[in-house]
Known about the structure:
The complex is a heterodimer of chains A (265) and B (199).
Chain A: H1 2-20, E1 27-32, E2 36-38, E3 41-43, E4 46-55, E5 60-66, E6 72-83, E7 91-93, E8 103-109, E9 115-119, E10 121-122, H2 123-133, E11 137-140, E12 153-156, E13 162-163, E14 193-197, H3 207-214, E15 225-227, H4 241-264
Parallel strand pairs in A: 2-8, 10-11
Antiparallel strand pairs in A: 1-4, 1-14, 2-3, 4-5, 5-6, 6-9, 6-15, 7-8, 8-9, 11-12, 12-13
Chain B: H1 2-7, H2 11-50, H3 56-60, E1 68-73, E2 78-84, H4 88-93, E3 95-97, E4 110-113, E5 131-136, E6 139-151, E7 167-173, E8 183-194
Parallel strand pairs in B: 2-3, 4-7
Antiparallel strand pairs in B: 1-2, 1-5, 3-4, 5-6, 6-8, 7-8
Amino acid sequence: MRLIVGVLAGVLLLAGPVAAQPSGPDRAAxxxxxxxxxxxxxxxxxxxxxxxxxxxxxxxxxxxQEQTTGKILATLLSVPAxxxxxxxxxxVPFTSxxxxxxxxxxxxYLPGAERGFELVYPREQAVAIAASxxxxxxxxxxxxxxxxxxxxxxxxxxxxRRVSTADRHRVLDVPRVALxxxxxxxxxxxxxxxxxxxxxxxxxxPPRAAAIQQTxxxxxxxxxxxxxxVLDELPDTAGTTVAILLVGxxxxxxxxxxxxxxxxx
Amino acid sequence: xGTAVRSSWTPDQTAARVLGLAALLCFTWVAxxxxxxxxxxxxxxxxxxxxxSAHPAFVAQGLAPDRIGRLDIPRLxxxxxxxGGADPLxxxxxxxxxxxxxxxGERGHVVLAAHRDTFFRPLKDARxxxxxxxxxxxxxxxxxxxxIRIVRPRDVQVIDAALAPMLSLxxxxxxxxxxxxxxxxxxxxxxxxxxxVEP
Lengths: 265, 199
């Protein structure tokens, strides 16, 4: 009997994580009604899933796949970012992106999480986004999958100049939902993305109604996005000059002492 | 003949000579290091004033950073050239600007680092209210020391970019420690004027 209970407990322990995996906290569904711009690609309207492949202190890999077919579309390089208030919003575009072109996405957060990811764009695309938005854009010399773990991440401005990766830009931390038919909202505040956590039941309401449910009051203050610290540790500033000078002095004193002792002996 | 001389050395004599040689090597290394730092500081100070290009000798040593500035804290007598980058080569000869942080005049948090036993040694006497000047070819910026913190090396939140624009000067702490010190002294100054600085 004990053997059977033990085996059953073991099976349950093993089965638990496997059963929970499809709706785990490292992925979120994304349904868009207008095309958006991601590093190296324009994502057409459809249903997708974004998944955290690797999540390090200084960089993370995010995978984009079609939700229906499971086809992997891209693996994106990103760096950790943080927002001041957790919300169900997962995708945050550049704040001043033009409304007549696919919106370039700046941040991706897991639903309800404060920590998220700022996407790193190929240089040419980063300069173009910086030119159209006036914001600095993270970039890397190469964003191929093979080099993502080692490549250095920098930032560029509209002129292609390297600028600081840190900034104090405020982002509009609101869901962007297609509402082109809503006359009350100006074009810049008519978002194009519908988001929901993976595994969540989609509301059985028309898209417009869903959009209204997710759109916050236009006058609500937007919390600032915080760029992640650029360092794992404060710089190591331990100099060796004094230590070597002390070693030299000790050696000199010892040498003189030996010579002094010899003379007296 | 040489063998005969060596064989006449007592163990004490041999030890004294070896120790003397070691001392000589140490002093030579320190003198070379200080001399190189002095030459780099002089050369880049002239470069900053005249706008000429970096000295070929420094370029060959990898000391041709894309960014050059000058840090002054008059009350502490701290005057040093700041070079882009905070790798050991830069920190040996100048104050280093930490990659990925803002440069004075840019939005964000400026972080400068230097050794506690050379350029940033005067920071041990820093006080809130001290005036800090930073100058580069684009202009001059004035800061005022607003906080002095002693933190652990992993407390990177003190240089978080989301904080108000600040200049942070980072060095090891305690100042009298020999070897890699366990803490960091962070002197934080807020901008109070100058070109393109948001007070």
